[in-house]
Amino acid sequence: MARLVLVPTPIGNLGDITRRAVQVLEQADVVAAEDTRHSRRLLDSLGIGRQLVRLDAHTIESRAPALLEQPGTLAFITDAGTPGISDPGAELLRLAVAAGHEVEVLPGATAFVPALILSGLDSARFTFEGFLPRKGSARSSRLQRIAASSATSIIYEAPRRVLTTVADLAAVCGAERRAAVSRELTKKFEETVRGTLGELLERLNETEARGEYVITVAGSDSPAEQTGSADLQQLASLLLEHGLKGRELREALLAAGASRNLAYELSLTV
């Protein structure tokens, strides 16, 4: 029976690797990685000359069972951070638990905790949303839940989509909702920008998006409060200024609570 150990790796600064993580990687019988080329550079920098086995979202189902049946310790690392958070580590752990294997998770680097603290928003209650669905009703319903929640929400986003996601959040939560955007955490160009969603939208529209982003959104003071028509018109104008139009604008307004007739009307008149 195998012992699976999920090993956190730095999200940017190599100095954040723990002594325990290095020890496990040195002593493991097999080291599997989400991206062997990326992880090879990390292990080389640590002086660990271990062979790596690829185990990503496309290969876990076919390769993991056989690896887990091998005796000894299987160490798993992802591209960055703690495995199991928005990556294939979650599925690997489920397979190991279902098969009755011993599982251990080492503490270590992850992006959403420093982003939450850096945001300056309430950290007593928070929800980690990971990556939002990209489109359709799944995205709209998730955005609506974030808007209604009284807890702080934390979202991961890629650079090419961060502007769209902040625009959608402004449409649903209101442009005055407090938020923060962090990028390149622990790296040379680390940056956290705080303000309202409207202000952050302006800032992102003026700068080139680079690096991975964490968006932190304050909880609602009035979870049941509905957005009024005047607010919706203001949001429609704001979103139109930032490139949303036609169907995209109507869907954003629907997600913000507008009726279908009002969303259609505003998409034509603003």
Overview of this structure, please?
- With 270 residues, this protein is α/β, with parallel strands linked by helices.
- It folds into 2 domains: 2-105, Cobalt-precorrin-4 Transmethylase, domain 1 (3-Layer(aba) Sandwich); 112-269, Methyltransferase, Cobalt-precorrin-4 Transmethylase, Domain 2.
- It has 11 helices and 10 strands.
- The strands form 2 sheets. A 5-stranded parallel beta sheet has the order 3-2-4-1-5, sandwiched between helices. A 5-stranded mixed beta sheet has the order 6-7-10-8-9, with helices on both faces.
- The protein is elongated.
- The termini are far apart.
In short:
The protein is 43% helix and 19% strand.
Task: Throw out a few tags for this protein.
single chain, 270 residues, Methyltransferase, Cobalt-precorrin-4 Transmethylase, Domain 2, five-stranded parallel beta sheet, five-stranded mixed beta sheet
CATH topology of the largest domain: Methyltransferase, Cobalt-precorrin-4 Transmethylase, Domain 2
Work out the number of β strands: 10
* Share of residues in helices: 40-55%
CATH architecture of the largest domain: 2-Layer Sandwich
Proportion in β-strands: 15-25%
| Overall mean pLDDT | 90
Number of helices: 11
Give the biggest sheet.
5 strands, parallel
Terminal Cα separation, in Å? 64 Å
- The run of helices and strands is EHEHEHEHEHEHEHEEHEHHH
CATH class of the largest domain: Alpha Beta
C-alpha geometry: elongated
Low-confidence stretches: none
